[in-house]
Amino acid sequence: MRQSNGLAIAALVLGVAAILLFWTVIGGVVLGVLAVVFGIIGARRARGGRAPHKGIAIAGAVLGVLGAIASAVIIAIGASILNSDEFKSFEDCVRSADTQAERDACERDFERDVNG
């Protein structure tokens, strides 16, 4: 008798959550990796005839991979911006600004530097 495949369902739920929360490290990377692991295990169980829902397990794993990749791209872009010369200049400008008007001017200068 075949048992249920809770790992396939868990992979799908985690994969959907990873896609929806890709802009966060926990949402994209952690949930995505968990979805991939659970999806692979669930698909192996289904392939061996011990459990149903092979397609759901695979879908969860694919969504997990996509969520993790999207999150990694967001992290790389964020790290690139934080390490840029423009951001360091902005940070120095804000640190030395005494008034809100000066901080607003720093923000305008940063946007001008970044956008061209």
Task: Fill in the keyword field for this structure.
116 residues; mainly alpha
Descriptive notes:
With 116 residues, this protein is mainly alpha-helical. 82% of the residues lie in helices and 0% in strands. It contains five helices and no strands. α1 (6-20) packs antiparallel against α2 (25-47) and α1 (6-20) packs parallel to α3 (54-82). The termini are far apart.
N-to-C span: 65 Å
SS-based class? mainly alpha
Shape: rod-shaped
The count of β-strands is 0
User: Beta-strand percentage?
Assistant: under 5%
Low-confidence stretches: none
Residue-averaged pLDDT, rounded?
Answer: 88
- Please outline the major beta sheet: none
- What gyration radius follows from the Cα positions, in whole Å? 22 Å
Annotation field: number of helices: 5
Set out the fold topology.
Layout: H1 6-20, H2 25-47, H3 54-82, H4 85-96, H5 100-115
Helix pairs in contact: 1-2, 1-3, 2-3, 4-5
